[in-house]
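Reader question, answered in our methods column.
A reader sent in the components of a multi-part assembly and asked whether the whole thing could be modeled at once rather than chain by chain. We filled in our standard form and ran it. Here is what they sent:
COMPLEX SIZE: two components
ENTRIES:
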Amino acid sequence: MRRLVVVGGGLAGLMAALKAAEAGVAVDLLALGPCKRSHSAAAQGGINAALDTLGEGDSPERHFDDTIYGGDFLADQTPVRRMCEAAPAIIHLFDRMGVPFNRTPEGLIALRRLGGTRFHRVAFVGATTGQQLLYAADEQVRRFEVAGLVKRYEGWEFLSAILDGSGRCRGVVAQELKSMEIRAFPAGAVVIATGGPGLIFGRTTNSEHNNGFAAAALHRQGVKYANGEFIQVHPTAIPGADKHRLISESARGEGGRVWTLRDGKPWYFLEEWYPAYGNLVPRDIATRAIFKVCVEMGLGVDGENAVYLDMSHMDPAEVRRRLEGILEIYQVFTGRDPCRVPMKIFPAVHYSMGGLWVDFDQMTNVPGLFAAGECEHQYHGANRLGGNGMLSAIFGGMVAGEAAVRLINAGEAGPVPSSLLEAEARREEEKVQALMRLDGPENPYRLHEELGEWMNDNVTVVRYNHQLKRTLEKIAELKDRFSRVGLHDTGLWSNQALSFTRQLGGMLDLAEVITVGALLRDESRGAHYKPEFPERDDANWLKTTIATYHPDGPRVTYEPVDLQFIKPRVRRYDTEEATRGG
Amino acid sequence: MAETVTLRVKRRSAPDSRACWEEFRVRVPPTANVVAALKEIRKTPVNAAGRPTPPVVWDCSCLEGVCGACAMLINGKARLACTALLKDLAQPVRLEPLSKFPVVRDLMVDRTALFEGLKRAKAWIELDGTHDLGPGPRVQQSLQAWTYELSRCNSCGCCMEACPQVNGRSAFIGPAPLAQITRFNAHPLGESLRAERLEAARGPGGVHECGKAQNCEKVCPKRLPLVWAIAELNRQAVAYSIRQWLSR
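And here is the structure of the entire assembly that came back:
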């Protein structure tokens, strides 16, 4: 069947759709809402590529090394290397699509720094780079939509994959969130690009769409989930009542400094502790430092859990030209101008390095089912570097789209039997009927709030085994209470409570995967930090966590990491020699 | 420290059902926005009279003013619910769906028209392909600066809501899609579709139907220079028409 189903309308999904449409394969593109509203729009700082237009001697090879090192050697090296090599051409592609990248006086693409590298490697559009890349990809897909090769189903939620007797993926079942219609979409291959599961942690920097449901549903269907315990907590966000709002790393990349008061004087602790990288240490390191200062040392600003991120010493006109998006966000939500007063920030959950396990062609362990973007596990190891998120989404989407086209063109699968489609759609109909009957006393939104608080308190920056065990007990309790949820909405039209409750079920599953993975991994690596096991332990733990679904809780196994290019070395950011292993 | 806020929400359970107002009282922190109040209702779906009611349906995603999903009428003004802080709003806070788009349910509307407008405007670059074709053209900082302003349009629909020319009796494409024509016509690679875009701009529902009320720019949450963009497009369309006429 010469048709590809893409689930997810962010950067990864749009790129997969583009690659397929270009190859003449028809695409059904399913997304929770208009693609322009996908979470890629919220990415701010920029996208990495070793363009080296400043003549610093940067190269894809250095980018590769920084990424592997930044990820504490947990990422498979082959795909990361390919991504770093492809990065310059990706920037050129988006430039040709019309993305208004900031420019040098000669009209070249301007570059700035982000964490975990000494090079200027980040192409950017003000501080709304993700928005601009997303719109460009969306525009190109719209072109193919007008040409009749792409059909958009915006406002549709993925429910399940259609698997045939041999275990091969033959399409998906989805529900329209307006009419609540359930429909089967047959396909020669499927690309899942549904983003991260951030909502599991309640208030995060993520969008409301990032519930991880598609990944959770697929996990239940037998798709492996890898490195779930690696959750990135971004060092700089504005705490909020409805969500925490990201203040991009690019604020520091452009010269912003992090400090707090000690003995009545400003203390630039990152610069003191990490002289070589200063404020541009990777996110896991900066987050732990801020935690140490606020929680352990009690030196948070005004006695709160907060430190200053200061841009008030910088030229306001230049700051506006390069960081306008974040200035606007800080000003709107706090009423203060970051050009005049230091911003008050604190770490917040931001990104999942783990996700659906995929091979180097982005295919999951289910033949015909691909995954790309934050929902998969492949590019960031134990910690993602700033500027690599959008790059991995775009690159992964392109690889997935091309690999899916190859599979479709090979044409082995043949037409999808209608009985298979009907059976899977019926199964999902029945699940919806069961959900609609829920009229117990528990409120799904309150359960979600409890889950978020527990996960945030116990499974983020600092992890203790006894707390992780208690969290697993809590998740079990929440799962039990989940069976007594009441929907408060029996409407068969735009029933958001139904959709959210379904998502919550998935969140509980993935919360368990994340927490079990964290409990088992008795070492510290990248974003995963246990004071009881403060060192990285390559002898026992340099391996990829693989969770497989089981009704009694995930079964965890491990797989070796592809280490064929760079030998693991100790990860430090205090001196350049230490970083380079010299 | 939570504070009690009163909201009046214009509700409609389906597109063809009658609209009615429902009042809610919720407790939220003093820094909260309209979205936080709506989220609070979901956790206790009970109205001000103490009666259980289905949770309010609305659209939102990024909650930081970027994605454009949560546009609605707040105290009569089209704006994003996430950037509307309750402390700045007169109470009771009146929430209504945008009126220029079909209502789906409660505060959720169907903004397909905006995306159809982008198709008519051919708001894209005619790319040769996504394979590696080397660097794009050099672009001067000045051009980058003003095209970036326009490319920040997030299709929220506030400008369409405020525009008197966008209504059931007109085919006017609206400010947001028109501004994208100006933007793409200025890009070195956008040139190849310039004539087609200008044909669209002077066709039915095109730029000539702008009534110059200038409401669009006033309500735009991203403060896009829409009035200038439409005026510039008008100039291009007139020049194009004259050239077409002279070359007949």
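What stands out: Chain A touches chain B through 70 residues (CB under 8 Å). The longest helix of chain A spans residues 496-520.
Send us your own complexes using the same form.
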